[in-house]
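Why should sequence recovery work at all? Because a backbone constrains its sequence more than one might expect. Tight turns favour small or flexible residues, buried strands favour hydrophobic ones, and helices have their own preferences. The token representation captures these environments compactly. In the example below, the structure is given first.
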């Protein structure tokens, strides 16, 4: 077994008391925190993270529970009182968008789940600095850095998942190129 397989095994069999202490500390921190080291190095590496300049790691805390809009407090017409769910976005995509909003000079490479408790989710987001020389030197990273606002257009892995693009073939004919584009092609 390789090193990263051992790390993955260690993560799956981690000590709950250590994780509990971490969560107590993380709750006291800001919602978006830049971190030096990945909590799950095996997962970060498998998603493209490298410990070199140009890469930024951010941990994002999100509140759990329904994603409805806040209830109005002032008077409204009953027809405009609706509180629809914010649909088509999973928690991970929301976390990616918030990280990208805080670091506008970066692009989201990928992200992964870290922890949850009764009130919060935590995700770690891998960002790449668009203008960094080491990012520009790599052809793969340069092409990703050129996709401006990719997290807002659903081009990250979790964005593609929420758009239904993990499915292929029979039963997924109306998913590509996108749900809205398929509607326009049919007419």
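From this structural description, the recovered sequence reads:
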């Amino acid at each position: 077994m390789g090193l990263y397989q051992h790390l993955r095994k260690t993560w799956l069999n981690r000590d709950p008391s250590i994780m509990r202490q971490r969560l107590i500390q993380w709750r006291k921190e800001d919602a978006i925190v830049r971190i030096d080291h990945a909590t799950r190095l095996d997962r970060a590496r498998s998603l493209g993270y490298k410990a070199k300049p140009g890469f930024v790691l951010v941990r994002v805390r999100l509140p759990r529970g329904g994603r409805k809009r806040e209830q109005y407090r002032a008077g409204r017409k009953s027809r405009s009182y609706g509180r629809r769910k914010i649909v088509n976005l999973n928690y991970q995509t929301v976390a990616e968008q918030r990280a990208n909003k805080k670091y506008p000079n970066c692009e989201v490479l990928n992200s992964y789940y870290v922890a949850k408790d009764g009130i919060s989710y935590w995700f770690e987001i891998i960002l790449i600095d668009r203008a960094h020389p080491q990012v520009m030197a790599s052809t793969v990273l340069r092409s990703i850095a050129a996709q401006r606002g990719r997290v807002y257009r659903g081009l990250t892995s979790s964005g593609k998942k929420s758009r239904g693009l993990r499915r292929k073939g029979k039963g997924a004919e109306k998913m590509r190129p996108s749900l809205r584009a398929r509607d326009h092609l049919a007419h």
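A few observations help interpret the result. The chain has eight helices and four strands.
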